[in-house]
Amino acid sequence: MSFIEVKNVTYQYQDSSTKALDNISLNINQGEFVSILGHNGCGKSTLSRLLNGLLIAEQGEVIINGINTADEESIYEVRSNLGLILQNPDNQLVTTVVEEDVAFGCENLCLKPDEIRKRVDNALKAVGMYDYRMFDTYRLSGGQKQKIAIAGILAMKPKCIVLDEPTAMLDISAREEIIKIIKSLNQKEKITIILITHYMEEAIESKRVIVMNKGKIVLDNSPDIIFSQVELLKSYGLDVPQSIELIYNLRKRGYKIDYTLSAQGCINNIVSLLQGNDI
Amino acid sequence: MSNLLEVKNLSYIYGKNTPYEKIALQDINFTLEEGKILGIVGHSGCGKSTLSKLLNGLLKATNGDIILEGINIWEKPKNIKSIRFKVGLVFQYPEHQLFADTVKKDIEFGVMNMGVEKNQIDIRVRKVCDILNIPLSILDKSPFSLSGGEQKKVALAGVMCMQPKILILDEPTSSLDPLSRNNLLNQVMAYKEEFNASVIFISHNMQELSLICDNILVIKEGKQLAIDTPQNLFFDDKLLNESGLKAPEIIYIAKELKKLGYRIKDDILTVDDMCKNILELLGGDNK
Ligand SMILES: Nc1ncnc2c1ncn2[C@@H]1O[C@H](COP(=O)(O)OP(=O)(O)OP(=O)(O)O)[C@@H](O)[C@H]1O
Ligand SMILES: Nc1ncnc2c1ncn2[C@@H]1O[C@H](COP(=O)(O)OP(=O)(O)OP(=O)(O)O)[C@@H](O)[C@H]1O
Ligand SMILES: [Mg+2]
Ligand SMILES: [Mg+2]
Asked: How far apart are the C-alpha atoms of B115 and B123, rounded to whole Å?
């Protein structure tokens, strides 16, 4: 049994004429690091809301750690197993002071006050916002709010964290920090990570990439295989990192150069190509 | 070329003389010519959104002046509304901008307030939707039932319909998919050409800034660190270090290959530039 089981789920919003999700099936095991890519409106956020029971499938079922999200009695257990960081941090921040906000989820878990204190401090340090713990949330900049929302979920230590475009508003160093935090949660604490993103270079950091298109899952594979299908990705409204685009352009002109996922790999392969040309 | 906009010694303090006093901007100076695109970058909280609100008169500077077409925007405070028609701002969070019960009404609202004719409005709306890839099927939906990226596009469409002389976009691409992002960049360029307008483009994405900006203003903790062309900025390792920014991947690759002794040009900005350069090396003698 997988930690997350999505079985033939279809979802249509009330005032909508099209299906937001169209017969989706998906299994994710405990400890995986999965990223989800797809064009605007393809259903990523809808899927994330179904996973933590904010929405309930009309057709098909969603089972988290053995619990059906349609089972109202256990919805609380579903949410303590699977934390969702919403796309817009304003919807996530509930109180007016930063540290109260980060503690909010923990308080609902009925933890002891000193345990909460410890977790809140650690979570704030993890996102680099400890100095802002007494700040009013409405005085924060966009990126700062995003970090606070992430800290709030980190402090709850769920088995699985779903992050809906967590780095959209962040600068490069903050984005790299967040991805580092996510990776370490996955590797050290074995927390299952589902990362929804429009940044291809972030998806490369995960072990498995799911591509959605118009409410359906169209690709599900490791990043190296996904990102070598340049034209297919573009047909889904996606893109590839510049290093891969460069390799793609050279291959199109008939040069023998392998795909690689990192900038350094790209440099190495170009050097080999140039040296090979010498001989 | 005449300066459309001049910003002189601009400073802004939130909550002045309260315990929450926060210096958000300090002594910012730049000029913007007609038809140019100015990028603004800097870490979270460095003051970018504050600057955007000062420029269209939503906030009033603690110090310094903003001169638009030769006139201080606060010269007649009663006229500040007309400034907002000339300087259109798309907020960082689109839902702060959306309020009507249908997408169509939302997009039309600003341009309607300007007294533009009804059939003219319809033409503008359709054109902008086409350019931004907004499906006409969502025009009658509530803007609050849209996906994050769709909301962003609707907010943008509303401001573009007003055809402002200066278009300020606060992280416009942050929730767009790559195709929509590329379309938006093209559209911003096209908008600029068509109306000889200027654009201020706030972004954390170095790749897109490198592609569309004539100049980039770098802010660090409220202070102006540099204002320069993308080439000069992204090839300046010292400045990159100091500002905590990173060059786009392709420029990084160019610089590394150069360090290895290959003949790489100094003005590489795009994948195509880099590709051409490598092809030249492959064709001729390389090292
Ligand atoms: N509350 C709602 N009511 C009606 N329709 C909705 C609602 N929320 C989303 N939709 C529609 O459902 C579809 C899927 O939306 P969803 O938010 O899941 O997309 P997404 O993949 O997260 O997009 P983005 O990348 O823009 O965030 C879209 O067409 C959207 O317009
Ligand atoms: N209403 C406010 N009251 C007090 N301080 C504020 C207020 N709004 C913003 N600030 C502070 O002013 C600074 C600049 O904020 P601003 O929103 O301009 O940053 P930004 O560069 O746009 O950041 P981001 O990239 O995260 O959007 C931040 O440190 C922020 O905490
Ligand atoms: Mg979404
Ligand atoms: Mg901002």
From this structure: 15
